[in-house]
């Protein structure tokens, strides 16, 4: 059985730009990476990173028993706009058995829930594949940096966030 990472993003470009290197690193480490989008468009950039794409509304509408991921990544702005997504993220944070990673500035005020800043250092391959995915998404490959910054509600139960190092 493979570890699962579900990613909730506003757009394909959003996922690639802010979490693309981390998604790639998880994918090549054997994780099943699925990006959930409200309106999937050209998914080629996410395919470059090794991710599958599903439509967010259909996933939220059909809760499949036992389909909980080991990790959940989400754009904070999606949580502030979509009550269903916010509820799911808060439930995952309270569960403490799921690693939760958030990027962006839209995290609702007063919703800390043990979410601390973390830094993911991208592998050389992740930087190369992220650059190609950015170009495919119509963005500049110059945006690739050696690391990506998130806020994380990492669990105390499983070492699934071993590649995340506390930001200094």
Write up this protein.
The chain has helices at 12-28, 44-48, 56-61, 76-81, 83-95, 124-136, and strands at residues 4-9, 32-37, 52-55, 71-75, 99-103, 116-121, 147-153, 164-166. The model is unreliable at 155-168 (pLDDT under 50). It has a single domain, classed as LmbE-like (Rossmann fold, 3-Layer(aba) Sandwich). The radius of gyration is 15 Å and the shape is globular. The protein has 6 helices and 8 strands. It is α/β, with parallel strands linked by helices.
TL;DR of this structure?
The chain is built from 6 helices and 8 strands; from the N terminus they run E-H-E-H-E-H-E-H-H-E-E-H-E-E. It is of the alpha/beta class. An 8-stranded mixed β-sheet has the order 3-2-1-4-5-7-6-8.
Question: How many domains is the backbone divided into?
Answer: 1
Number of DSSP strands? 8
CATH class: Alpha Beta
The largest beta-sheet arranges its strands as 3-2-1-4-5-7-6-8
**N-to-C terminal Cα separation, in Å?**
34 Å
The number of distinct helices, counting runs of at least 4 residues, comes to 6
* Approximate strand percentage: 25-35%
Output mean pLDDT. 82
Order of helices and strands: EHEHEHEHHEEHEE
Round the Cα radius of gyration to an integer and report it. 15 Å
Structural class: alpha/beta
Overall helicity: 25-40%
State the CATH architecture. Answer: 3-Layer(aba) Sandwich
- The best one-word shape is globular
Oligomer: single chain
CATH topology: Rossmann fold
Report the sheet with the most strands, covering strand number, pairing sense and barrel closure: 8 strands, mixed
